[in-house]
Every structure is written in C-alpha cells, then in structure tokens.
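Technical appendix A lists one of the benchmark inputs used to test multi-chain prediction within the project. The record comprises two sequence entries:
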Amino acid sequence: MSSTIPLAVEFTGGLELLFSNQRKHQISVPSSDSKGAPSNVGYLVKWLCENLIKDPRKEMFVLDHSVRPGILVLINDADWELEGEDKYELQANDEIVFVSTLHGG
Amino acid sequence: MDSINGADAQVQRLRQHITATESQLRILKLQLQQAEQAAEAAEAARHLNGAYQGGLPADWRDEIFGVLHHDTPGSLAQDFGHNGEFGDAQIFARPTTEDVRQQRWPLASEEYKRYGRQMIMPEIGLHGQLRLKNAKVLIVGVGGLGCPAAAYLAGAGVGTLGLMDGDTVEVSNLHRQVAHSTARVGRLKVDSAVEYLRALNDSVNYRAHPSHLSPEKAIPIFEQYDLVLDCTDHPTSRYLISDACVLTGKPLVSASALKTEGQLIVLNSPPRLPGDVNGGPCYRCVFPKPPPAESVLSCGEGGILGPVVGVMGVLQALEAIKLLTAKPVPTGPGWSMDFTATKPSPPAEPTRPTMLMFSAYSTPQFRSVRLRSRRADCAVCSAQASITRQSLTSGSLDYVAFCGVTTPLNTLTPAARITATGFSRLPTDGSNILIDVRDETQYAICALRGSVNVPWTGNADTWLDQAIMSGGVAEHGDDGRDRYVVCRLGNDSQLAVKAAMDRIGDGRVKEIKGGFRAWREEVDPSWPDY
C-alpha cells in the first residue's frame, strides 16, 4: 500500500494567483491524515494551505476551515456536492479543480 | 262580449307569437354569429393547411396555429386570422400578390430568405423559427456579454427583445461591447444597442428598459418575458436576477467573464415551482453564499479580453436559441410555470445541470462540469424558501448588504498623504524616492522616470520584503530620504504606506492621493488614461 496519493490539482478563475500563478499542479498527498483516516478532500484543502499556497492571503482560499464562498470545488469534473463534499475520499489520479466564480460581463 | 273576448284572445296570441319569434330570432342570430366565427377559423386553418399541402403532422399544425394567433410583431399574426380584429373584408378586398403569399405561408417571404440558413437545419426548422418569432427574451446588462448575445438573438429572429441597462457608453467599452460605437459614446447603452440592432433586423420588437434592475421592478418586468439572460457584472445582480427568475418561472442563461476566462450556466431550467425537485437549480443552489466583496474583481480592475467575453455572450445566445426552439414540455402553457397547479409536475427528461468553463490560454479551452441539482434548503427554489414574490417586490431584501460592499480606503492620517500637485513641486534632486506599486504590466504601459516598481502583493510583510530588496525602502528605517508611494487609483498605495510605517515606524513615507488618476487630472493631462 502506497503511503501517498498522486493527484492533479488545478486552480482557475484567478485562484492560480495564490498558487505561484500556476494553474496545474501534480502533487502527492499522504494517503491518510494524522488520525489514520483515509485522506479526503477536506484534508487536501488543509494540505494545500500548508504546502502549496504561496500567497499569504490564505483567506482568499479558505474561510472558517472550509473553501471560501464563491469557490466551486470539482472532483473529476463534477461539483463536489455530488461526490460527498469534503468527505470524498481521494483516489489515485483524481483531478481536483478549484474554480473561483467570475462576475465580470 | 264574445267578439270582444275573441279579439282579446287574438291580441294575446299574437303577442305570444311575437315574443316566441323574437326569442327564436335571437337564438338564430347567436347561431349565425357562432357559425361565422367557426367559418372564419376554418378559413384560416384552410390557408395554413394549403400552405403545407396537407403534409404536415397534426401536432405541428396546432402549435403553429397557436403561434399565429399570438400577438407577435410583424405582419403575420395580423394578416392571418387574428380573431377577426382585422376583418376578412379588409384583407380580401384588394388582395395583392404579397397578401396572397402571406396568407398561404406562415412566414413572410422576406423571413424565409433571412432565416433560411438556420431554418433548413432539423434543429430549427419551420416550427423552431415560429417559436423564436413568438418568443420574448430579456437581456439584463448591455455590455460585453449583452451586446453579442443581443446581436445573435435579433439576427435569429426572436420576436421581442428586451434590453435593460442604466449605463451610458464609454470609450473603454468599445473594444468588447460590439453593439456600441464611437459616435454613440455618452448615449444610454440600451438606446445605442437598439439603434445597432434595428439596423441588423428591424422586424424584431425591441423594448428598452433604461435603468438598473431593482428588486421592486424585477418581477413585473420579468413576467413580460419567456427567458432571461444575465449579462451583468456583479454578484448583487446575479442573485437578484436568479431569484426573480425562480419566482416568475423563467429559465435563466447566466454568463460571466474576466481577464481570459468565462463561465456559463443555464439555471432554473426547466423552470418549476419552488419546492419541485424536478426544476433546474438556481444560482443560490450552486452558490448559496456570496463571495467576500474584496474577492470580486470587475473588468475595469482585472481587465478583460474582448473575444473572451464575446465568446461567452455568443454562447448565451446559443443556449437561449436551443431552449426557445425546443419542443415545449406538454405540461403547462408554453414556458411559464403554472402557479395555479396543485399537483407536482411530472418529471420531464432528466436535467443535467452543467457549467461550461472557457479559458483562452488553457488546453483544452473548454470544459463542461456537472453541477448539483436543486438544493433542498435553497432560500428561493426549495419548499422551505424564505424569499418570495412579496419579499422581493416590497423591497425588503437588501442584495447589496447580502453581497457586502468594499468601502473606499481612507486609512492614513493627512500627514501621511500628499496631493499629486504637491508631489509635482518636490525637488527632483534625489532627496526622495517614488515607489510605484502597480503591477509590472501597468508599469510597463507608463511610469515616471526614476520610480521604483514594487507591485503590491496584497500582504504587508511580503510587500515590504520586496520593497527592501529592490531598494525602495531602506532596511533600517530612516536613511534621510522621503518615500512617496503611488498606484493607479490610490487604494493599494495606502496599504503599502501603512505596511512601511508599521514595520519601520517611518514618518517619511507618504501616499500620493488619488494615484495616477489624480496625477493626470492635476498635473499631466497627457498621462495615459487606461
């Protein structure tokens, strides 16, 4: 059993500015959290805040321990609400996209 | 006596006879009227039937006949059996060739020519064209999205096109708002767009709503239309438009764009009563909470590439055409939701709400993602909805407060600020340093000679590190020189000055009030106004 899970993470809608202005990231996260439970998307969000975010304005990504309002989380091209939200357990090579909603027109 | 009695009886009989005959005459007149109406309808139907030479499926005939009876703009409805409002005598008295042709065919000859290229596709066909002609579409926002959307819908022959916007045309709109023109700068956007659209297709009925949308106005205006396009540029209007669409039972095609990206969602489709899980999700189902106000960037702040917003507006027109030309669901009349219905509507074909994302510089550029269905606790479209028609029209909902506002910054004491004029009078002998906190791209457009570019990073510590590294700020506080900080409009410069003062306690850091906008207005009129 591998101890990490390879994932493709992408940030769009301006969120990439918080992550070194880079949209796509290939990352590996531990396959279980500190309590030994399988890593889920909630854990991934925390992991991104601790390891990948470069901008100090973390509140532009996370508010009240969850992804801030106005950010859509997509798990393999589906709204995470269809997949169990932050409880969704990460699978190898999952593609997780964080989209900030746009408002211009 | 007998003869007198006999004459009385005769009078009595005659009176009864007259009464009975008059009653019969009334009935006969009524029957005649009904027969005439039936004959008139049959005559109209015969023309239509003749037009198709009897080869049209019966279910189409009913629908097309329904369309023809509608009060649509243009000549068709009036010429073609319009409830006797235009008597046959008027039409048939002096029939011209054109009259005869218009009675034989459901569209005018000009319309076959104009719309032929889309009508010959099975997706549209004659019935699709008639549905477009019968449709009323409201476009809220006549900017980068609304202009191309309106152009394609007018071009396609949508019967009634409503345009709503309270803004006037500015020069900085013209690179993307294709319905406006240099000559119409300063005019109301709705008027400018109608002028453009009339030149494109004069047979459309255009309705201008020259104001911004308010909660009080939304419902009575939306009720006049079949479908709404959200082409606005702020979360406030996006929530309001979605709420009003749910409450009036209108499908909503919503799009947005910023910089090089765009997003498109079809909401409340199919439109169903609040609480009906078979209805499409609304904006609140997808985004129950608005984003923090400071995370919302406008096109003026973030920038926008013309074709990016254009692509999204064109896609809105496309989705609108797809919705309008689809065969109406059998339940309820046409589009609108039947608010009198007590039974829940039967499930139509399963709806698959999606969001289309466009990113000009990514590969692939387009990506479609699955969205959730209606939210069981949605504030407007669920069974537990708290937002109602009444709460909207009474004006008790404050969308601005709901979405939050960013107030103009004013964080510095007067001692830490200088006017642009004041700065222009300072000696240029190296005794002071100008720090320009705009990003590199803007700095490259125009900058003052000798200034140091330290882009504001959004964070005091990281910015100060950059400022010290680039020599803009001395590492150990006072080095005997004054620092002046400038940006585009005078917001970021305040934050940067505050960061510098907090760290190095420097009373010698000042901000140029109003940034380069003030510089242009007070000192250098030739400074680029981008």
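Chain A touches chain B at residues 12-14, 23, 55-57, 59-60, 63, 68-72, 74, 77-79, 81-82, 97, 99-105 (CB under 8 Å). Residues 70 and 101 of chain A are 6 Å apart (CA to CA). Comparable benchmark entries are summarised in Table A2.
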